[in-house]
Model the fold of this input.
Amino acid sequence: MAEQTDAASGSLRPSTPGLPTAADLVSLAEIHSLLQEFHHDIKKSTKGLNHSLIKEMLELSARTNCMVGQLHKIMAHHNNLADQHQELLSGFKRLKLKLTDLEDRSLHNVLWIRGILEDSTYRLSKSSKQPKVTPCDHKGACL
Done:
């Protein structure tokens, strides 16, 4: 058996394998305090990271909610425009049908008199409803 010198008494004592000596206990205490400091530092940094992640998540959530609200407004506006477009198309079809009918009637009621030119302008009577039509360019796009 190996013998060790006891630091306090200076006497030799037998060393037992597996049991810590006084020097080992000091180093274990130092290691324990270092581990405690390391644990405290890790805990502090993870709390900071957690708080920053929560803050970013809340900001993203607020931005997402704002964008969803704007998207709903845009969709509602689009639906209104689509409804107005359909109404305008049906009005255009009614006007086209009415114009075709008026042209057909005028062709049947035309009196051709020699030497008198036919007036090309057609005016509706004041009692008839005049449709509100926007002028279109030569490509068919309304102005």
